[in-house]
Amino acid sequence: MKKARREKRKKKVTGFFEEFKKFITRGNVLDMAVGVVVGGAFTAIVTAITTHVVRPLTDWVLACIFNKDSQSDLYSFLKRIEVDGKIDLGQSIYIDWGACVSAIFNFFIIAFVLFCLIKTINNVRENAAEARTKKLSREDRQVLRERGVKVITRKVKKAYLEEKKAEAERIAKEKAEAEALAAAQYRAEHPTAEELLAEIRDLLKKG
């Protein structure tokens, strides 16, 4: 009994590490790791810009608006602690409006760049998929040769792909209609208990 439990536990551990190995060797996981590294570096750049460029400009604008002389005057102190006549920011409790505005700028910059990046990637993928769908296969070229087409121009290619698409849609429609007809015939030949009861009820009402 104990041996069977040990074998079962061993199989679980082995299976776990096998799944982990498959997970870390997938291509999308490697892409994700690269994305995390690049994203971290980009975030550091944006944070540096907002800290050393945006925040000083924000503090300067706020100082001009509220007619303040120093950065500490821009803080909203909830509890002010002074040491030797100077404000001790380390012990005081205050609201740093410049840091809040910088964090908001930081968020919108990163969100905007990520949006542009994802949109670009999606457009590239859509264009690649569209190009694959518009590409003629060897069988398609053979069909055109059998029709007597010697030079496959863009116009001929477009007309053939439209014809092929229409034919595929027609076949799919016919298949769907045939499946619906077969399903209706099956239901007619194999009525459910509810349908039989309803039919009996209707016959009793007529009688």
Structure overview:
The chain contains 6 helices and 4 strands, in the order ααββββαααα. The chain has 207 residues and is mostly helical. It folds into 2 domains: 2-133, Non-ribosomal Peptide Synthetase Peptidyl Carrier Protein, Chain A (Orthogonal Bundle); 155-207, no CATH class. The strands form 2 sheets. Strands 1-4 form a two-stranded antiparallel sheet. The chain has a two-stranded antiparallel ribbon with strand order 2-3. α2 (27-66) runs antiparallel to α3.
Structure in a nutshell:
77% of the residues lie in helices and 5% in strands. The chain is built from six helices and four strands, in the order ααββββαααα. The strands form two sheets. A two-stranded antiparallel ribbon has the order 1-4. A two-stranded antiparallel sheet has the order 2-3.
Briefly, what CATH class of the largest domain? Answer: Mainly Alpha
Beta-strand residue percentage: 5-15%
Identify the CATH homologous superfamily of the largest domain: Large-conductance mechanosensitive channel, MscL, domain 1
Binned, the helix content reads: over 70%
On the 0-100 scale, what is the average pLDDT? 76
Apparent shape? elongated
Following the backbone from N to C, one meets helices and strands in this order, namely: HHEEEEHHHH
Give the secondary structure arrangement, pairings included.
Elements: H1 2-24, H2 27-66, E1 76-79, E2 82-83, E3 86-87, E4 93-95, H3 97-133, H4 138-146, H5 154-189, H6 193-206
Helix pairs in contact: 2-3
